[in-house]
Amino acid sequence: MSSREYLYAGIYYPNEKEVLSKYVNDSVSLYKNKKVNYPFAIVAPTTDYSSARRAFGMSYSQLLDEKYDTAIIISPIHKIAFDGIALADFDSYTTPLGSSLVDREANEIIVSCDKEFITYNNDYHSREHSVELQLPFIQSILGFNTKIVPIIMGKTNTKFTIMLAKALSTLLSKSEDKKILIVVAMNLSTGVPLPKLVEKDNKFVEVFSKLNIDHFSEQLSIGTIEAFGSGGLIAVLRLINDLSLDKIKILDLSNSSVFGEDNNKVNGYVSIAIDR
Question: Is 143 helix (H, G, I), strand (E, B) or coil?
Fold first, then answer.
C-alpha cells in the first residue's frame, strides 16, 4: 500500500502522539460551539495550530458525536498554482495518531467527471500541508473508520469551482448509501495590522452572509475581501445551491493576535458550518 507520510508534525502541529491527541481534544472542548444538526460541511483553518486553536476548535466541535463514512478535504495550494484539480493516488495518509484510508471509490467517481482537469497528482499532495493539518482532528473526533478524499484546487476561478461542484454533486448522487462530510481548508486576511484585519474580515462576513456566489467571487477577485482557499468554499456554495441547502452558520471569527504579540502581522480565520 502507498502512503502519504506526515511531513509537518513538529512544524505546524505537535509530533508527539499524546500531546497531539490532548491538543485536539482540549481544543474542541474549550471552544465548543452550539452544534448545527448533522453538518454537511465545515470550514477550518490551514495554518499553525498554535495561532488558530480557537478556529480549529470551533469548527471541529461541530463533528462531536457524529459519524461519517467519508470526509472530503478541499485544500488550496501554497506553492505554484496550476490549472486543474488534483486528487491523491495514495492508499492512506498518516499523522502521529495513525493512518486514514483514502476512499478510492470516491476518488474514481470524481476523476471520471473530467479527464482533462481533474487528475491524480501525488507531487502536489506530497508538498502541500493543508490536508495533513485537518487529519488529527478528523482522526480524533470521527475515528479511523472514516475514509478521506484529499483534493487540491490549483486555481480559484469560475471554471474550476463549477467543475468541482459538479464532480461533488455526481459523487453524492452515486453514494447515497454513504454519509459524506466536506471540509474546506481556508484562512482569511494574512499578515496585516490588526485594525485592518478586523475591518476586512468583518467585511468578509458581510459579503458572505448574502450568499450571492457571483458577488462573493467578485469581491474576492478585486480584493475587497480576502480568503486564501476560497475556491473550495465557492465550490461548496455552488453545490449546496444545487442541493437547496441554506442552513449556513458563521460560528466565529478569530485571529492570530490572540496567541501572539505581533499585532502588525496578523492572520484571520473563520469557522463555518453548513447543515444538511
Answer: coil
Q: What are phi and psi of 233, to 5 degrees?
A: -70, -40
Distance linking the first and last C-alpha atoms of the chain: 34
> What letters, b where the CB count within 10 A reaches 16 and e where it falls short, cover 63-83?
beeeebbbbbbbbbbeeeebe
Nearest to 276 by CA among 250, 248, 252: 248
Low-confidence ranges of the chain (pLDDT < 70): 36, 245-246, 260-261
The three-state secondary structure class of 98 is strand
What 8-state DSSP symbol labels residue 61?
Answer: G
Distances 228 to 82, 91, 98, 217 between C-alpha atoms, Å: 15, 28, 28, 12
Q: How far apart (Å, rounded) are the C-alpha atoms in residues 68 and 134?
A: 15
Instruction: Label residue 214 exposed, middle or buried (CB < 10 Å: 0-12, 13-18, 19+).
Output: exposed
What is the distance, to the nearest Å, from the Cα of residue 21 to the centroid of all Cα atoms in its chain?
20
Tell me the C-alpha distance between 91 and 100, whole Å. 9
pLDDT in tens, 140-168: 999 999 999 999 999 889 999 999 999 99
Grid coordinates 474580515 are at which residue?
Answer: 201
What is the spatial distance between Cα 146 and Cα 101, in angstroms, rounded to a whole number?
A: 8
**The three cell numbers locating residue 111:** 476523476
Q: What are phi and psi of 85, to 5 degrees?
A: -130, 125
| Sign of the alpha-carbon torsion through 227, 232, 233, 237 | positive
Rounded CA gap, 271 and 254, in Å? 8
The answer to whether the beta carbons of residues 123 and 84 sit under 8 Å apart is no
pLDDT of residue 33: 79
